[in-house]
Amino acid sequence: MVRKTRHATRTDWVILLTDDDQTYLDAIRKLLEREGHRVLTARDGEEALALLASVHVDLLLLDFYMHGMTGEEVVGELRKTNPMLQVILQTGYASEQPPRALLRRLDIQGYHDKSEGPDKLLMWVDVGLKAAHSARLLHKSRVGLRYILDATPGLHRLQPLENLLQNIIFQVTGLFGVANSCVASREHHTDDPGVAPSCFLAVFEDDAGPTVHAATGRYAGAGGLNEQELDGLLARALDQATRSRRPQVGTDATVVPLCVADQAIGVIYLDKPIVDNQDLELVSVFANQAAVAIRNAQLFKMATVDPLTGVHLRRFVEQWTIVEIRKACRHGGPLTLLMVDMDGLKRINDDSGHLAGDQALVAMGRLLRAIVREGDMAGRYGGDEFIVVLPNTGEIGAAQVAARLLDLLQDTGIEWQGRSLPVRGSVGMATLLPVPETLRSASAPPRQYFERVYDALLAAADRALYEAKRGGRGRLHAAGECPWLDLSH
């Protein structure tokens, strides 16, 4: 016999009880509320369907025979839009409907004979809620995996490492709704002075603390985690996560390592405990994808980026520009190339040493990265010469970019041994004319043709740079619009 005085711990389950017998409705509602469940009630099928369309429900207890729509008709309408909701039919005439056949036909989870009493009903409720729990986990897993699958292509496309890290952190917060999170790694110091240390290189032999590279919430804008935040759980969790390569969960935080093969290259820290094993599994799957993307971005950066200035290497810019010239030929848009030469770098090297000259190069690289837009490219051509490639940009737009660079250079300098050393430069510009219709309609030119166009454009920009230097330095000189080469040559 049911203990009517029992008061269970409050659950998070929502049950919709639908019956046209008000007395039965009130009695069963109280019974289920004593079990700790939240109970909604409806007097007929139409009211039940309206509630289901506006309120989340985990289990539907549905009378088979009601005024208006029958329970079977309600289930038929429900399954058109909601295949996941668990349903248990109730009836006082169970012998009229074979239970097994009804369960198969309507895709429901139970069929209760009211004459069997409240204990049997509670058993069916437990069965239905267990099925609802399994369905909830399955749905969450599917949604999470779909989210990860949709996010993965964006992680693995070629992009600057900094952009990738920010993308990863946005995806994490989207996956788990975590307001405050950060991607952190230990800085690795290489013995080779010619190679700049890369973030997220997973060599943990030094004592450097984790460095924040991308963050949201209260960590946004932080350059690193301070000592106070590294005290206690976080410091231990970071160490344990990187050593064990498994997520570490505390009372108020989760640390997930980013691993490639058997090597941890960083961690994802979330200021939220992920206690559900399925959630931990999802974030681990995502972290594995993120770690591979980070490693690929690191290798790509090492192969294409000048470690001193942070702009791209000459060979990469050449190949990239040839591809952009091919696109310009196909779509008809302009393309402009800027040649930038530093003014006075030799004097800095001679008077203050090459270390000071290196700092001047670093400052120039920083400015060039600041002025280029997404889709543009800045590279180091050699020594103190740089190139900036501006696809889909004509003379007017390119001149504005060059003017901005020259304006910024007026306020740029380095501090060296108590002295302020100015960093200045001159700019030569050459613009490739929009492609003529005869070239667009011709058969696809070979790669060698676009290489020759690049060489001609580069030569024109270099001549313009020479004129800018001869005209007094610190200025822009435009070579004008360069025509496309004749295909026959």
Structural account:
By secondary structure, the protein is of the alpha/beta class. The protein folds into 3 domains: 14-137, Rossmann fold, CATH 3.40.50; 157-304, GAF domain (Beta-Lactamase); 312-482, Reverse transcriptase/Diguanylate cyclase domain (Alpha-Beta Plaits). 46% of the residues lie in helices and 21% in strands. The protein has 15 helices and 18 strands. It has helices spanning 22-34, 45-54, 71-78, 99-106, 117-156, 161-176, 227-230, 233-244, 277-304, 314-331, 345-352, 354-371, 395-409, 437-441, 447-470; strands at 14-18, 38-42, 59-63, 86-91, 110-113, 181-186, 210-216, 248-249, 254-260, 263-270, 312-313, 335-343, 377-382, 385-391, 413-416, 419-422, 424-432, 476-482. The protein has a 6-stranded mixed sheet with strand order 11-13-14-12-17-18, sandwiched between helices. It has a 5-stranded parallel sheet with strand order 2-1-3-4-5, sandwiched between helices. Helix 5 (117-156) runs parallel beside helix 9. It is elongated and about 105 Å long. Residues 1-5, 177-182 and 185-207 have low confidence and may be disordered.
